[in-house]
Amino acid sequence: MHLVSIIMPCFNSEKFIGESIKSVLAQTYPQWELLICDDNSEDSSKEIIKLFQKTDSRIKLIPNNYSKGAPGARNSCIDEAKGRYIAFLDSDDIWLPEKLSKQITFMLERDISFTYSYYETINEQGIDQGI
């Protein structure tokens, strides 16, 4: 199995980041690392990430020394990535459990180096917005 580096920028994401991390932990594809770059959050985002780090060594917190914005935070994670593949997940998004497994299988079977997938838009209560 190939390692997938999951890149997650984070800024003041305490409200949703726990669910985002849980959606990675629920992946049926086990060969991943989750690189979360905190872009100088002023809320409890870092503390939440550190709690998850204690339960799974595949989760890594990468602090920015100064605010770089989401693109800069993604680049900080990419600099640390060790995976054959890179996947992007924002700190307020969630994945279905088979997302990585299906996507990596699809790419390997077809010798494809880049893919993207469908997404659903939900509100804060998890209700499909039909967008």
What can you tell me about this protein's structure?
- With 131 residues, this protein is α/β, with parallel strands linked by helices.
- The chain is built from 4 helices and 4 strands; from the N terminus they run E-H-E-H-E-H-E-H.
- The chain has a 4-stranded parallel beta sheet with strand order 3-2-1-4, sandwiched between helices.
- Strand 2, helix 2 and strand 3 form a beta-alpha-beta unit.
- The radius of gyration is 15 Å and the shape is globular.
- The mean pLDDT is 92.
Q: Report how far the terminal alpha carbons are from each other.
A: 34 Å
Number of helices: 4
Apparent shape: globular
Rg to the nearest angstrom? 15 Å
Task: Please state the structural category.
Answer: alpha/beta
Quick one: biggest sheet? 4 strands, parallel
Catalogue the unreliable spans: none
Overall pLDDT confidence: 92
- Name the strands of the widest sheet in spatial order: 3-2-1-4
Q: Helix and strand string, N-terminal first?
A: EHEHEHEH
Helix percentage range = 25-40%
The strand count comes to 4
Q: Strand percentage, roughly?
A: 15-25%
